[in-house]
Amino acid sequence: MTEIPSALDSSDIIISCKDLSKAFGGIRAFSDVGFAARRGEVTAVIGDNGAGKSTLIRCLVGVHRHDSGHVFFDGRAEPFTNPDEARRAGIETVHQNLALIDELTVAQNLFLNREIVRRFGPLTLLDRPAMKKQAQQMLSRLSINMPSVTQRVRRLSGGQRQAISICRAVGAGAKLVVMDEPTAALGVQETANVEALIRRLHEQAVSVILVSHNFDQVRRLSDQIWVMRAGRMVATVRARETTGNELVALVTGAA
Q1: Burial 140-160 (b: 16+ CB within 10 A, else e)
Q2: How confident is the model over 63-85, as a mean pLDDT?
Q3: What are 158-194's pLDDT values in tens digits?
Q4: Total Cβ atoms within 10 A of residue 119
Q5: What single string gives the DSSP state of each residue in the chain?
Q6: Sequence-ordered list of residues with C-beta below 8 angstroms from that of 13, at least 6 positions apart, any chain
Q7: 86 beta partners
């Protein structure tokens, strides 16, 4: 097991796990994993396909239930049994499929399942003007340019859709935003826009976990990098102290 480095072993840690293991039937996804992410930092998890990184993240946020080990969030033991529990605790996850509804507007997607309402006696009505106003404020906070908050999501580009998903996570007051391959399906310019958005989250001291295959990207964006190989956490390094070649060697086992 890769031990949590002493530099990270402090109250500054927002989420961590110890001796975590998960299997699906006879297939072992990962074993005895230790991991930690510090508050206000971008923490990357890298590894080849099948290394276990996405499954690890899903266990941390309650999508999967781990078989053994311990998860700690915000100083407490928190074995989340589902994503809603993690969300209520302050963890928002931006999945690859984004979980946006194409036929709804930008504002409606930003407030999906947490709509603002007004009550008139026994009646409850959606406060659409308030949601539109707050949606624009949420986008402005992260310097996200949208044609209009009343635009339907299906008309937006991949980068704009990703920005909405990230903005929704931050707007919900998340303590931690988890991003699984946020630029995997994007072009060069859209990738640059999403990376700029992640940098703005960092500047605002929002804690981020970034899962990515792009080693140059994680070196540009992250503070700490964790490396998984064949279901094990094999190394962790500070981004500014490593190179692309070293990360390749750690992922492939050459190092």
Answers
A1: eebebebeebeeebeebebbb
A2: 91
A3: 888 888 888 887 776 789 999 988 888 778 888 888 8
A4: 9
A5: -PPPPGGG-STTEEEEEEEEEEEETTEEEEEEEEEEEETTSEEEEE--TTSSHHHHHHHHTTSS--SEEEEEETTEE---SSHHHHHHHTEEEE-TTTT--TTSBHHHHHTTTS--EEEETTEEEE-HHHHHHHHHHHHHHTT---S-TTSBGGGS-HHHHHHHHHHHHHHTT-SEEEEESTTTT--HHHHHHHHHHHHHHHHTT-EEEEE-S-HHHHHHH-SEEEEEETTEEEEEEEGGG--HHHHHHHHHT--
A6: 4, 36, 37, 38, 39, 72
A7: none
**Tokens standing for 172?**
């919900």
Q: How far apart are CA 162 and CA 197, in angstroms?
A: 10
Residues in the chain: 255
Q: What's the predicted TM-score (pTM) here?
A: 0.84
Rounded CA Rg of the chain:
19
Contact 35/19 with Cβ under 8 angstroms? no
Per-residue pLDDT reduced to its tens digit, 41-59: 999 999 998 899 999 999 9
- Which residue shows structure tokens 């949606």? 135
